Amino acid sequence: MLATTFALEPDFFERNCLARFLAVTSVDEDTGSADDIVARVELEERLREPTVTVLADRGAPAERSSLRWDVLHCLVPGGLLHSKVALLLWQHATRVIIGSANLTAAGYRHNIELAMAADLGETCILPRDVLHGIAAEIESYLDLVPGLEPDIPTRRHAVSTLGLFRSRVATQPPSRARLRAALAPTNNRTGPLSHLDEVWQGNAPLRATHVSAYWDEKSPAVLTQVAGLLTGRPAAQRRQCVAVTVGPGGEIPFPPSHKQYVNEVVQLGPLDDEPRVLHAKTLVVENNQFLAVLVGSSNHTEAGFGLHPRRRHRELNVWLGAALDSPEGQALAGLVPVGEPIVDTAAYEEPADEDEPEELAALPSFFGLCRLVCGDAGWELWLGLGDDPPDGDWSVRLPDGQGLLDRATWVAAGSPDMVVRPLVPDQLPFFLDVAWDAAKGTWAVVADDRHQLPPGPALSELASFHLIEALATGATTTQLLRQLRERVAVGQTGRIISDPLARFDAHSVLLRRGRKLAAALAGLERRLSEPVVTVDTLEARLTSPLGPRFIAEKVVTEHLASGTERAAALFTLAEVALSLGRVAWTETMRHIDKRAGLALVDEALKHLEELRLRIDGATGDLADYVARALQEAGRCIHS
Question: I need a surface site. Which of 80, 175, 421, 586 has the fewest CB within 10 A?
Answer without folding.
Answer: 586
